[in-house]
Structures are given as C-alpha cells and as structure tokens.
Design brief:
It is built from 14 helices and 14 strands. With about 425 residues, the protein is an alpha/beta fold.
Length: about 425
C-alpha cells in the first residue's frame, strides 16, 4: 500500500511518516513540503524516490494520485486548500490533520466534495482511537449509566505545553492558526459530541488571555531568555527549564524548537539563540493572542448538557471526564489505567481500560494510522469509531458557536 504525505513537519514526519513507514506492507510513496530540510529528512528516513519529493504543492498535486492514500499534515490554514486539491487530484482516502478549517462553509464544501467523489476523509481526532475513550463510549452505549444527562470535561494543557505551542509557537496567533478551542480542544469537542450522541443546539463561553501578557513580565526580564535574562535559572517557562535541562517536562517540543531530533546541548543553545527562533523568546513578551483558559457550556437536542474547561495552568498534560446518566455515572482521568463506574444501587466498579496501544496521544496516533490503513484496504470498520468529515463538521460547529459567544461576551465587557 502506497501512502503520500503533504507536510512532513512534526506530525507528518515524526508521527504519520514514522508509524506508517513501520507498518507492514506500507510504503511512503511521495512527500511534499516547502521546507527543504524537512523534505530531505523525510526523503532519507522513508526512502522516498527523489522524483517523488516535491517542494511545490501544485507540482505535487499535478501528478494526480501518488498513493492509495494521502496524509495532510500541513498547518491549520492550509488544510482546506490541500484537501480540495487532493480530492481534485483523485485521492479517495485522506487522513486530514485537525482543525479542518475555521470556516464552517469550508468544512461543508469539503464534505460535499468528498461525497460527490466517493472519497473518505478521516480527521485526526486521535483520542477516539484510544482504549480509554473507546471504553467510555462502550460503557455509554451499553446503557449501563442510562440516558446521558451531563458531561463534565476538563482539558489540562500543562504550563510547559501551553508556553511552547500557544505563546511562543505555531498556535500563538489565532489569525494565522486558530483559536484555542479549535487548535487544541477540538479533540475534546469530538469526544463530547460522540458521548452526547446528539446535535448541539447552543454553546456559551467565557475565556481570555489573562497571564501571558507583557504586564505580567518580571521586572527587567530579557526579551530572549538566552540574552542574559536574570530569571533564566528560576523561570518555569524559561528555555533552560523547557529545552535545555535534561529533565525537561517534555521531550517532543525539542524537535519543533531546535529543528532536529536528539540535538546536543550546544546545538540546542545555538538554535535557541538564533534571532528568528520563536521558541527562544520570553513568554510574557511574545506576539500571542490565544486565550490561556476558557470554559464552555453546551446544550444538546436530546436534553443532555455538557461543560468543558481548558486551561494552560496545570503541571501535567491530561484530561478528566465525568459522564452522568439517569442510571449511573462513569468518570476518570485519562492517565489512569481504569475508569470508575457507579451504577446506582450497585457496588462501585473499577473498569480496566480494554486495549492499551502504545505511543503518542495515549496510543491514538497508532490507532488512527491503523484505522487509516484498514480504510484504504477496505476492511470492515464500525463507523461509530470513525472521525469522518461529517462528524467533524458537527463538533467543529460547536466550537464556532462557543467562540462567537466568548467574543460577544468580551465585547460587552469592554
Ligand atoms: N492530531 C493531533 O493530535 C495534532 C497534534 C499536534 C498538531 N496537530 C496538527 O497537525 C498539523 C501540523 O502540525 P505540526 O506540529 O506538524 O506543524 P509543523 O510546522 O511542524 O509541520 C507543518 C509542515 O507543513 C509544511 N508546510 C507548510 N506549508 C506547506 C505547503 N504549502 N505545502 C507543503 N508543506 C507545507 C511546513 O514546512 C512544515 O514542515 C497542524 O494543523 C496541527 O494543528 C495535530
């Protein structure tokens, strides 16, 4: 099976490229990226023929279908354009990174074009492909907790992840990427929509960028951490703590910040000192505008309600979910190996997570790649476990509604 990839950065190279190229019977047949270094890395790592490596998307798509499937792992604002071009080029199986688009009409256009051409688009809402969240779905579907009435969900992004991605990095500016709910929390809306099993009739939201602002910068801090900032040793957000220390709380950020896997200490310092490296900047003095905390309350056609909070301010990166039904409740934290199931009138039960696939996003990265290969092969798959473009249209719509509400509330507070 041949699979092509457009966008071989962090996700395209380190996740989809690596997982798919290591999958039996799969070959990475073509790659496209505007970054020469990224293209060369992918060519070398996946053994792609030089003639199938493209720096220009038009040339890549002009070649028609270059694989049985295509992975689109370019940046947020490119997804719509790349998907339409891919459908025009004849791809029938597409794995598309989230978010699909920040415009409902573009998602509708993709869904309609895919339907017309008989193409399948799987959106990378990877959490649906994990043992933890599938187990919850199976409990809800079994009827054990009765009719779902309330879903409480909390996404703890972690201070270090937030600083990396949403103050310094790719997703700091909602005008060039997307608002926090779309860029980060769209996975959680996919889950809530899945568990509520009903269309959303309304969403209200509050949230703001409260902390990563220049008025909160420590006195006389440097604009770049390695330009002699006097807080370098102590600042939890400084580059020393996040990228240079051996016990950094996150390893995967290094690839994005430094531009290569496993760099030496000297390579890291040199990369972070470069003027154009956004990850070398002080978190209080960046050009960010994305909310650092937000809450949303939702109502669904079947009468269920849901409340979601996303926050930068947690030590670790994890989610907590609590679903309450008319006959019982199920809850847990996704770093645990079990869920608590209370059926009213019966003894409390610990439910072990069914499958424990290894890898990133609780195994969801591997899970979605496996499902994508099955889709290409034409294997039978229960559609309830698929994050299709139609399902994503509904969950993205909740976000658009919530963002509209947050922005209106902010205006009325002014
Ligand atoms: N599913 C998930 O859990 C998850 C997690 C993180 C990021 N993402 C999403 O994945 C996407 C990629 O994120 P990333 O962290 O890999 O970013 P990245 O910047 O590391 O990778 C994007 C790549 O696309 C390339 N690119 C830009 N314009 C292009 C063009 N016109 N044609 C071809 N290539 C082009 C860039 O050079 C870069 O190599 C984003 O949309 C992001 O929101 C999803």
């Amino acid at each position: 099976m041949d699979i092509a990839i457009i966008g071989v950065g962090s996700r395209g190279f380190n996740v989809y490229g690596r997982i798919l190229s290591a999958t039996g019977g799969v070959r990475i047949s073509a790659v496209c990226d505007i970054d020469e270094g990224a293209l060369k890395n992918a060519q070398d790592k996946f053994g792609v023929d030089g003639g199938a490596c493209f720096a220009d998307e038009d040339k890549f798509f002009a070649g028609g279908k270059l694989g049985d499937g295509l992975v689109i792992a370019s940046m947020d604002k490119d997804h719509y354009r790349h998907t339409i071009k891919a459908l025009d080029a004849g791809y029938k199986k597409i794995l598309l990174e989230k978010p699909v688009s920040d415009k409902p009409e573009e998602i509708e256009a993709i869904a309609a074009a895919a339907k017309n051409r008989g193409a399948d688009i799987l959106v990378c809402h990877v959490l649906r492909y994990t043992g933890f969240y599938k187990t919850i779905r199976d409990i809800v579907k079994s009827g054990a907790i009765g009719k779902v009435t309330v879903i409480n969900h909390q996404e703890n992004v972690a201070y270090w992840h937030f600083a990396h991605s949403f103050t310094r990095g790719n997703w700091r500016d909602e005008n060039t990427s997307a608002p926090l709910l779309l860029a980060k929390t769209c996975h959680d809306f996919d889950l809530i929509y899945w568990y509520a099993d009903s269309k959303c009739t309304g969403a209200v939201s509050y949230g703001a960028l409260s902390y990563f602002r220049k008025e909160n910068a420590p006195k006389d801090c440097a604009a770049r951490c390695l330009d002699g900032c006097k807080y370098l040793q102590t600042c939890p957000y400084g580059v020393k703590r996040l990228y240079l220390d051996k016990d950094t709380p996150f390893k995967w950020g290094i690839f994005a910040a430094i531009g290569k896997n496993n760099p030496t200490y000297e390579e890291k310092v040199a990369a972070l000192k470069m003027e154009d490296n956004v990850y070398g900047r002080c978190v209080y003095l960046c050009d960010n505008n994305v909310a650092d905390h937000q809450s949303v309350v939702m109502n669904f056609e079947n009468g269920a309600t849901a409340a979601l909070t996303v926050t930068a301010f947690s030590k670790d990166c994890y989610r907590k979910i609590h679903i309450m039904g008319t006959k019982g409740e199920v809850y847990g934290s996704d770093t645990d190996k079990f869920l608590v199931l209370n059926v009213f009138g019966a003894k409390s039960k610990k439910v072990k997570i069914k499958s424990k696939i290894a890898g990133g996003h609780l195994g969801g990265d591997n899970g979605i790649c496996d499902t994508f290969c099955k889709l290409i092969r034409g294997d039978a798959i229960d559609p309830d476990y698929l994050t299709t473009i139609d399902v994503t249209l509904e969950s993205h719509k909740i976000i658009f509604e919530a963002e509209r509400s947050r922005k209106n509330a902010a205006i009325s507070n002014d």
